[in-house]
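Holo prediction. Input below; ligand is magnesium ion.
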Amino acid sequence: MSVFQAPRGTYDLLPPDSATYLAVREAIAAPLRNSGYGYVETPGFENVELFARGVGESTDIVTKEMYAFETKGGDRLALRPEGTASVLRAALEASLHKQGVLPVKLWYSGSYYRYEKPQKGRYRHFSQVGAEAIGAEDPALDAELIILADQAYRSLGLRQFRILLNSLGDKECRPVYREKLQEFLRGLDLDEDTRRRVEINPLRVLDDKRPEVQRQLTGAPSLRESLCEACRAYHQEVRELLTEEGVSFTDDEKLVRGLDYYTRTTFEFVHDGLGSQSAVGGGGRYDGLSEMIGGPALPSVGWALGVDRTVLALEAEGVRLDLPAPTSVFAVPLGEQARRVLFGVVTQLRRKGVAADFAYGGRGLKGAMKVANRSGARYAIVAGERDLAEGIVQLKDMESGEQSPVPLSAVVTEIEARLS
Ligand code: ATP
Ligand code: MG
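Structure of the complex:
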């Protein structure tokens, strides 16, 4: 029988590279934890209707990319393609918006599933860290989220990313613009799918990447010029806050994003080293989403950053994260008695919080030292019968190569002292 392979469009995270993924998740989460966001975890699947309504019937995500299925019990479910609808559903279900001061600020980290054409940076199973601030309309909140994402990327050492910023208007000005745009689009030479999109969600046609569509869009009515006074002022405030905090951005009137629920502020983080899968993260304000899924009016804003593409961005910039070695001390016993003794030393070290590992499988000195080397450990403890008879072990500094005898009874404290 041949060995099984991971399903198409998926890949495994394995050591040592998996450490980078964990570090990226950590780095994105750290500024959120530090800014009043509480951790939320929701199921990997939801009622399919939640996404149909919450993400939008006309989006690629719902029409083409969703893993939807019927259970044996007859429930219609879908693997989650994104996080916002689930997080808002969870907040509404638990009435978090009634329990304290708004906004409710939440962050999450997990796996998402989209049936897409797999390619570099585009997978069927991928990972996001996201943040949502639910129930408040305040330009400072929009700015906060953009600043925190910027801070996260910078803390990782990324530099070649840009922030694209736009405003999509609200329920006052968006419908007026929508109609104007529809009128314009109906006069173009478009395929049947796109014509249908013109009727359901015309703004998304602006986002069409195909050159034959883009070419026809010159002269389309301008969204920016159609914003109502309130949206214009709100957007201006977001822009000024970002500028004051030294976060630069590019105004991009064409930035629409693939989800139906966005209003006002929308933004995307793009990285210049990633080729066509250049978006590393995106988000925006979704003032109407709560009502779309049966809740009260709860103006909200959020983002999701892709972990996979962030790792690719690090590679593209040649950034190597300064990750601590997973093992500080490696024990190499020579002989049966030494195995017992050093196993005890390793256990003691671990209980003290020192990262320690052990040469299992009874290899000889040479093989075991090779493993010790590969572990990245700063120190090796080596002991044979003769050492133990003298009540000592050999402590080897793996960096300098220096080796010195240390009393067995003192080795744990000696290592702790040297490592601190
Ligand atoms: P794209 O335009 O590249 O399809 P998107 O607009 O569908 O991206 P979002 O739904 O905004 O992406 O998700 C936020 C982030 O999640 C993206 O910026 C990206 O980093 C990541 N992401 C989305 N889909 C995938 C995927 N199929 N594989 C890997 N990462 C993804
Ligand atoms: Mg997509």
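The two ends are 51 Å apart (CA to CA). That is the main takeaway for now.
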